[in-house]
Write a structure and sequence with these properties.
By secondary structure, the chain is mainly beta. It has 5 helices and 33 strands. Keywords: Glycoprotein, Signal.
């Protein structure tokens, strides 16, 4: 017991040294990452478990909490977890991707220490290494509002987390072998809800229970690899209240398209006949639709769920039109007391426009993906470490792609890093010339998704941007032969990953990094490298540079 107290005091001291806030509560977790046999589709396969759980443990936090997670890697491969949507203000050291962190070697551990500073909402974590995400290791992270901050809806009777996503019955090593040999993953084998697949008409234990007359909050996140998922509940409306850290205008929906990496919070009123109802998740935009179900049971209800499932929408125009209905709740407060709408992003002048065009090609006969003619590869030395130790020129080159894409059908494999001027307000255009839907995410930030439209972007399209109440979020979809425009201020110093959330595309190069350097080299802008940071590649064994000061 005394040893545990000493460990926690030591972690608190180290946490203060890297900038997480001592005045706010700490949450401590110890996670053991192991292999285990799972059978989510009825076929035994090797999965990745955290503390024996699939999906992994849920973190329940409150805005500004400090989170300390000691991860022990008991796999036979290096491993990292990334915290999707957590902004890690001034602290990209905790981001858990190969551009910022040396992976946790087998048989060793690493302690993540980060603060969910000025954030609320529904988030997920998952492995960022070696296609481990295809085997599990993912889970949810809830960030509740502080009691002093009003929430724009009454407290629900209970909250439920719903992790939906496609699933492959083959192990991550087999799937990785497919990609390494130059072939795609192909279509998924099924869909899971909280790690399980359910069939209509087959007896299922209820996943959730609702009491008649009460309202419940469901946090729905797509943790899959490839497919957008349509989510719906038999006989019930879905009231959208929050999306990736932002309170939204509270519209009612029959169903919601949740694209990979996205999280929605919805309110569901238990206002139907007291019996069982199916929760339904089905793939979108794939040739073969995969569907799974789970049971919601009314307390003291009698009667089985109807075998007639609510139909899924057809085509991507429906999904585009749904996106257009999403609006930022301007009068609601999020993590801070001031209303969300007090930040008038539409009045800020754009200082730089970057067009990122995704493409697919073959390099030496093998499948690769990329942006603007470059397919990213992770060097042995993480980009952030190379930069921090002033050795970037020995590891990568900045700005190998231009802000305006060149016309090319080929891909060059190399690290892809863009320099961003600190605190500049930037417009990024994701342009998708392919016939498949894309989903893109930026670590360390939220951005305003001001437009998603079919066709090709041009400056004249700015006339139709939503400059008033676009939702501030961290992931945006781009429909086939379409584009998306986002606006953000690069005010969070660090090295930040911009990536496809379709994981085979990420693994094969459809990602890049934004290097955001403060000219002051000050703790006001960025925290020092944590003492427990493993060093690898060309910085292994080197003395750390002089620390930043105020």
């Amino acid at each position: 017991m005394a040893a545990e107290v000493i460990l926690k005091l030591t972690i608190c001291f180290l946490a203060l040294m890297v900038g997480v806030q001592g005045g706010d509560p700490y949450l401590f977790f110890t996670w053991n990452v192991t292999y285990g046999t799972i059978s989510p589709l009825g076929v035994p396969q090797q999965g990745i478990l955290i503390n024996g759980q699939f999906p992994g443990p849920e973190i329940n936090a409150t805005s500004n909490n400090n989170i300390v997670v000691n991860v022990f890697n008991n796999l036979d491969e290096p491993f990292l977890l990334t915290w999707s949507g957590v902004q890690h203000r001034k602290n990209s050291w905790q981001d858990g991707v190969l551009g910022t962190n040396c992976p946790i070697a087998p048989g060793t551990n690493f302690t993540y220490k980060f603060q969910v500073k000025d954030q609320i909402g529904s988030y997920i974590y998952y492995p960022s290494t070696a296609l481990h995400r295809a085997a599990g290791g993912f889970g949810s992270l809830r960030v509740h509002s502080r009691l002093l901050i009003p929430v724009p809806y009454p407290d629900p009777a209970d909250e439920y987390t719903v992790l939906i996503g496609d699933w492959y019955a083959k192990s991550h090593k087999i799937l990785r072998g497919f990609l390494d040999s130059g072939r795609p993953l192909g279509r998924p084998d099924g869909v899971l809800i909280n790690g399980k697949a359910g069939k209509v008409g087959v007896n299922q234990e209820p996943l959730f229970t609702m009491e008649p007359g009460k309202t419940y909050k469901y946090r729905v996140c797509n943790v899959g690899l490839k497919a957008s998922i349509n989510f719906r509940i038999q006989g019930h409306k879905l009231k959208l209240v929050e999306m990736e850290g932002s309170h939204t205008v509270q519209n009612l929906y029959e169903s919601l398209d949740v694209h990979i990496g996205q999280c929605f919070s919805i309110l569901v009123a238990a206002d139907q006949d007291p019996k069982d109802y199916y929760m339904v998740a089905s793939t979108r935009f794939l040739k073969e639709v995969q569907t799974t179900t789970a049971i919601i049971r009314y307390k003291n209800g009698k009667g089985e769920a109807s075998t007639e499932l609510p139909p899924a929408p057809i085509g991507w125009a429906w999904s585009l039109n749904q996106f257009r209905t999403f609006r930022w709740n301007l009068t609601a407060s999020a993590a801070r007391p001031n209303p969300q709408g007090s930040y008038r992003y539409g009045a800020i002048n754009i200082t730089r426009t970057i067009r990122l065009v995704n493409s697919v090609s073959r390099v030496n006969g093998k499948l690769r993906y990329g942006f603007n003619g470059v397919s990213h590869t992770d060097p042995n030395t993480p980009l952030k470490l190379a930069e921090y130790f002033n050795l970037a020129d020995k590891v990568f080159k900045y700005n190998v792609i231009k802000d305006e894409p060149e016309k090319t059908t080929t891909l060059t494999i190399q690290p892809n890093v863009l320099n961003m001027t600190f605190r500049n307000f930037v417009e990024i255009i994701f342009e998708n010339h392919e016939k498949s839907l894309q989903s893109y995410h930026i670590d360390g930030y939220s951005f305003f998704a001001v437009a998603v439209e079919p066709g090709t972007w041009s400056p004249e399209k700015r006339e139709n941007y939503n400059l008033l109440d676009a939702v501030s979020r961290h992931t945006v979809q781009v429909f086939p032969k379409s584009w998306a425009a986002i606006l953000l201020t690069f005010d969070n110093a660090g090295m930040w990953n911009i990536r496809s959330e379709i994981w085979e595309r990420t693994y094969l190069g459809e990602q890049l990094y934004a290097s955001v350097l403060s000219p002051e080299n000050s703790l006001r802008d960025e925290y020092n490298i944590p003492e427990n940071t493993p060093l690898c590649g060309i910085v292994a064994g080197l003395p750390k540079p002089s620390p930043y000061t105020i």
